[in-house]
Amino acid sequence: MSAADDGAANGAAAGASGSERSLGQLMATATTELSALVHDEIALAKAELRQDAKRVGIGGGAIAAAGTLALFSLPVLSFAAAYGIHNLGLGLAWSFLIVGGAFLVVAALLGLLAVGRFKKVSKPEKSIASAKQTAAVLGTVKPHPRPLTGTGRGDASVTRSTV
Questions:
Q1: Does the reported pTM lie above 0.70?
Q2: d(Cα 35, Cα 39) in Å, to the nearest integer?
Q3: What average pLDDT does this structure show over 18-32?
């Protein structure tokens, strides 16, 4: 049995003694509990997104490093190809090719690391499930009808502006 059911049962039993809660108290309690629920949902979403943000940061850093190393390898490979064509033999150009190839191997490894990190990123499943459950509960709640006391303009307690 929920706290609301307990309150209703206690209120019905104690109705004669005058210990029922007023509408204002019930609204204040409902507002406080709804506010706490929303804050808890936000905290859960932040915790899940913080983990994914860390994974994205590591993956992004690895991609940036891979791109930088690949960019550095282009001039080296270009010089190596030029010296290789020029010499047509084993010489200085091979050393440029080895360095350029090493850059590409490191870039490929960092790219694979980044892909692995990005595959681990997922949706905040706990937050989504909790929000759906809350929406389902709130969707079943029906407001109590209020008695109509009058339809005149004198009953309006809130003045609406056109701003």
A1: no
A2: 6
A3: 82
